[in-house]
Amino acid sequence: MATLDFIPTYKEEEIYSIANKSIKFDSYDDIKPYLDELVTKASTSTIKKLDFSGNTIGIEASKFLGDVLTKLTSLEEVNFADLFTGRLKDEIPKSLQYLLPPLIPLKKLTILNLSDNAFGLMTIDELEDFLSKAVYLEHLILSNNGMGPFAGARIGKSLYKLSANKKALKLSSLKTFICGRNRLENGSIDYLAIGLRNHIDLQVVKLYQNGIRPQGIAKLILQGLRFNKELTILDLQDNTITRKSALVLADTLSNWLKLKELNVNDCLLNPLGSLKLIESFHQGEILNKFEILRLQYNELDIHALTLLKSVIADKLPNLKTLELNGNRFEEDSSIIDEINEIFEDRGFGELDELDDLEELDSEDEDEEDESEEEAEEEEIELDELEKELEQIQEYYTPDNENKEVEDIATKLEKASI
């Protein structure tokens, strides 16, 4: 899931990778052979992708890698995923002080992967400072980092600051934001919604497995993502949507006419919520670009399934993947046969294995879930929060690339290991 929706292509000589070698970089001596190799390759080739993922780096080694990063001005993609396994909590922030600032002035660097690192609150100062200034970045992968709601809120603030800096420099906003498995919960949603809605070019948002509850989902969509008209992929898998927020999602669907993938697997839409979402597809425009619909484990019943068949036939002419396992209908339903016939007639389209369908029973659980939703707090308008952020915004304007590199080098030189 923590992957881009496209695969960047590079020539072999444009990539320097030591991915997944489980090398432990503690000292300068540990990392020197690899840095020498990297510098040598960079002297004869244009290095566009750097991949250090699947290794572990300490403070001293980070300093010397940071020194080299300032010289790799042709970089387009950096993968620092799973880079701190076994490191102490106070090591990681200090390492990031060396690794992140050198990336800021790299004008061609548009893709950064920082997933699978134990960041949490300990590194949020370094992350917030970096993200607010990474004006050339377009695709950010920040999944499974142990953020929690407080760090998540600050990530949201940094996204707002980044959008303001990008606008001031007339640069494109973020296009991809992947932040799954981070326990963002409802506590991060206010600032996250503000941050995301200000990136008007945003195309891909993946916030799967974050423990976001219905009120948070509703706010995220209603006061955040509904403004992102360029959205092509929305992944909310394994958060809790239920009926009330499903209605918000359904009402907002018409804002995303370029949508090609929607993932609400394991979101407990409930029968009515599932039906309203399908009705929104049915009442909306034909979505020629829409290819993937994931609806597993949502209590979707035969009424929604029947309408879904019509949606596939009339509104989703290029649907290639449909996931429905774990819902409330019979596996041998004639509607399933009719959906498969549509796919067969088209020559493409695939339905997942229906091997874990829910038994048809009472609706007691639905009523309990709905009463729980009603007990939640009223939604808060976010415009005032955004005005506060705007008033304290400190704009970052790189004078020129050389000056930025010199400043970073000076800071690194003064810092103690």
From TrEMBL:
GO molecular function, one term: small GTPase binding
GO cellular-component term (any): nucleus
GO biological process, one term: nucleocytoplasmic transport
Keywords linked to the UniProt accession: GTPase activation, Leucine-rich repeat, Repeat
Metal-binding as UniProt keyword: no
Gene3D superfamilies referenced in this protein's UniProt entry, alphabetically: Ribonuclease Inhibitor
Pfam families linked: LRR_6
UniProt protein name: Ran GTPase-activating protein 1
Organism: Wickerhamomyces mucosus
